[in-house]
Amino acid sequence: MKVVRILTDIGVRKAAVFVTAVFLCLFFVSCPVRASEKTSVRQQYQEYQKRLNRVKYRADLLKNGFSTVSDQIFPIEVAGHGEVSLIPAFDQTYHRLVLFFVDDRGQVIFRTDQLETNYRVLGEMKQPDCEIAAVSIKDLNQDGRMDIILITSCAGEDGSYEGFKIGDVLFQNRQQTGFYRDYRIADHVNRFGMNKSAEVITAFVRDGHSTEFLYTSETLKELLSKGLQIISEQCYFRTFGKLGRLQVVPGTYPISNYDVFMIYLVSEQGDILFRMQPMGNYDNLYALKGINCRDIDGDGLKDIVVLAKYSYEGDGGELIVASDYSIYYQRTGSFSQDTEIKKVYHIGEEDTMELLIEKARAYWGFKVEEND
Question: Count of H helices and E strands in the chain?
Answer without folding.
Answer: 8, 18
